[in-house]
Specification:
The chain has 286 residues and is of the alpha/beta class. It is built from 14 helices and 14 strands. The strands form three sheets. A seven-stranded parallel β-sheet has the order 10-9-8-13-11-14-12. Helix 8 runs parallel beside helix 9. The radius of gyration is 21 Å and the shape is elongated. It starts with a strand and ends with a helix.
Length: 286
């Protein structure tokens, strides 16, 4: 059994109250802290650092979870986090899920300045413009991570990166790649273009077909995909900023694809093109 602090019996404990209030955006912004729940997110948080500073600050765990995930608890302690053994009802009080998994971490904000992303000369970027659903935002972040993107940008009109639902939906990808937040869409596009990145707006009514773009060999260079709101897509003024507006072809009878699915298709199309002979990733690695 890993060494932990005395059991926190009362949900009214000052530490419990401080963690519980992070479910609200204004307190997250004030404290610059957010919650990561479940073994996968906590494991990733325990292994993440920003410079010399560890990301995981505190870990609340039930006795059962501490025994089941002893390696995660040990990693949290190794990262310098305070580990608190908590009763089931305390974890339930802090957690934002219906069925908590017994581990809740308190983490420092980890967003990256947009200028740092540009300085790294990214080759594949996902830009979320006016995306309001936290589940979609987290899932797109996970897709970008899986596709090997170097960065994600959330515009100033998009959902909070640290919304608990977004954190859960990313399944740990919050800790894997740089994410810039609060960037005006015009600034995002302008900065990425100046960094040599082609801007593609994903839209069901686009005048370019994704399959045709791939067949032409037009997608091997540095690319940023701009994804819009779940309900109404990208406004005309945002589409006008892009180098091209691209649609994912619908070969069957489905009316459309949801945001996260379309994002996965687009990002993987770029990732494959960039890894092909002549693509920018092949050239960089050779």
């Amino acid at each position: 059994m890993p060494s932990v602090s005395p059991e926190l019996i009362s949900p009214r404990s000052a530490r419990v109250l401080a963690a519980r209030r992070l479910a609200k955006r204004n307190f997250r912004g004030k404290d610059r802290l957010f919650l990561a729940e479940g073994p996968q997110a906590v494991r990733e948080a325990a292994g993440h650092r920003t410079g010399a500073q560890a990301t995981l600050v505190e870990l609340f765990t039930t006795l059962e979870a501490a025994e089941r995930y002893a390696d995660i608890v040990a990693a949290a302690r190794g990262a310098g986090a305070q580990v608190h053994l908590a009763a089931d009802e305390v974890i339930a009080d802090i957690s934002t899920t219906v069925t908590p998994q017994g581990l809740v971490g308190v983490c420092r904000f980890l967003d990256t300045p947009f200028e740092d992303i540009l300085a790294a000369r990214p080759r594949l970027v996902a830009v979320l413009a006016h995306v309001r659903d936290p589940g979609n935002a987290g899932t797109v972040l996970r897709c970008a991570d899986a596709a090997g993107a170097e960065a994600v940008v959330l515009t100033d009109a998009s959902v909070d990166l640290y919304n608990p639902k977004a954190v859960r939906a990313s399944v740990g990808s919050h800790f894997h790649l740089p994410v810039a937040v609060g960037v005006p869409v015009e600034r995002a596009v302008e900065g990425l273009k100046d960094a040599g990145v082609r801007i593609l707006a994903a839209d069901g009514a686009g005048d370019r077909d994704l399959d045709e773009e791939l067949d032409k060999g037009a997608m091997g260079g540095p690319t940023a995909w701009v994804f819009g709101n779940e309900a109404w897509g990208l406004p005309e003024e945002t589409r006008a900023l892009a180098d091209a507006v691209v649609r994912v072809p619908i070969h069957g009878k489905a009316e459309s694809l949801n945001l996260a699915t379309a994002a996965a298709v687009c990002l993987y199309a770029s990732a494959r093109a960039q890894r092909a002979s002549g693509g920018c990733r092949f050239v960089t690695q050779s």
